[in-house]
Input
Amino acid sequence: MRGYFAVGVEGVSKARNLGAVMRTAHAFGGSFVFTVGAANRAREMFQTDTAKTTQNLPYYDWETVEDMALPRGCQIVGVELTEDAVELPSFRHPRMAAYVLGKERGDLSPAMLERCSHVVKIPTKFCVNLSVAAAIALYDRTLCLGGYPERPVMPGGPLEDKQHLWGAPKKRT
Output
């Protein structure tokens, strides 16, 4: 898969969810993780981040949205329920992206939404847990950009292309 991605949260209120988000980013092959305005929670996240993400990936902790310094060409993708958000199954993921999620009891800040190149929403009946939302978004990215073949029309896995193997020549007598 070409490109890279990062995952971060803005103003997270539950450190355990932050740890789970970081672990999920690491599991899906993230390039770095970040927080914005969540320094007080970042220290507690190690209880749930059993993969020790911050020892394996760069971790950036920015105080404000204005402090965020992302690589050139990196597009911020907000995962948020807004009126104009694109439903995730209809979204084309950028090759270079930083996915950002808001705190559990609130939304992404207006300043963060202003910085977002795209805003996507997960089409569910109600909000899902922060770490679940991160996992769904990253799974969708993996399906879209991971180089997987189209799904089969019938239930089940893809049929393997079996090439005919020719045996040794037979001699007639």
In short: Residues 130-145 form the longest helix (16 residues). The beta strands are 4-10, 32-36, 59-62, 75-79, 86-87, 96-101, 118-121. The radius of gyration is 21 Å. The CA atoms of residues 85 and 120 lie 5 Å apart.
